[in-house]
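lol ok so funny story. i was supposed to be doing the assay writeup but got distracted and ended up predicting the structure for this chain instead. priorities right. anyway since i did it might as well share w the group, maybe its usefull for someone
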Amino acid sequence: MDIRINKESSVPIRQQIAAQIEYQIGIGKILPGDALPSVRALARKLGIHHNTVSQAYQDVTAVQLLSRKHGSRLVVRVPDERAPALHPDLDDLINQAIRAARRHGHTIDQLSQRVRERLADEPPDHILVLSMDPGMRRLLQAEVGEAVKFPVRYCSPDELEVNPDLLLGALVVAAPGVLPSVTPFLSKDRQPVVIHYTSAERHLETVRQLTHPSVIAVVSVSAAFLMISCGLLGGIIGDRHTLLQCLLTDDKSDRIPAADIVFCDAISYPRVLTNKSARNVHVYRMVSAECLSQISATLPNQ
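and the output, tada:
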């Protein structure tokens, strides 16, 4: 930075210094991110009191041309640089990273690629449940989230194919049969967990032990749950018992059928209990205890 002053001028030295700094910034001689000499170093060079230099620096800072970085050093502000936030939010931090990358000659594409790589190396901060069936996604989210006390999100394989960024920071927990369609998008360094179902033998045995023809109902928010459950029960029920199925939606008017035995999922269970016609209710939890332990062991600080 080339500053020349005239001590005999009627223009205050403070103003001469400030004006030359502003001018050199304006013509591009001093570039955004460049550090100014320390107050004492410039004062010694010009042979003046350091307070005069300090006041000149304050004048240039007041017009938003300088900012403090690295302790007490003043640097030329980047044109789109915001005033430092007392408590920077995530957008502030991202903006700082973008400006710093540009100052050092990196492109936005390079920054984006490196951020993706670094995020992939970080421990997961949430679980991502994958399933073809919308109701099953909700059901698995509820069961896993309740068991491991960790943020759980969900999406379909199609959504993941359209937006692979959904995998960032995620531990993938997939329903059986889903992985082949999403494997190309998964990181090799973070293995997904495939859901293992809980044995339904105890529930099936309840039906086998029925001594009289009965009405058996299966209630769920998931069409896939109903299909599997009714398929298992069908071979036991035969033509001796009556099998009903009920797919619950968010519509509170959904009617739960009257039955001697009701099998339901974890989400449907509270609504089934409020139904006075449901006398013998059995809740089936999809995810096995062993699978939940495997998920928990994969997560940080679990």
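The chain has a mean pLDDT of 86. Strands lie at 66-69, 73-76, 126-130, 152-155, 170-174, 193-194, 215-220, 242-247, 261-264, 281-283.
back to the writeup now i swear
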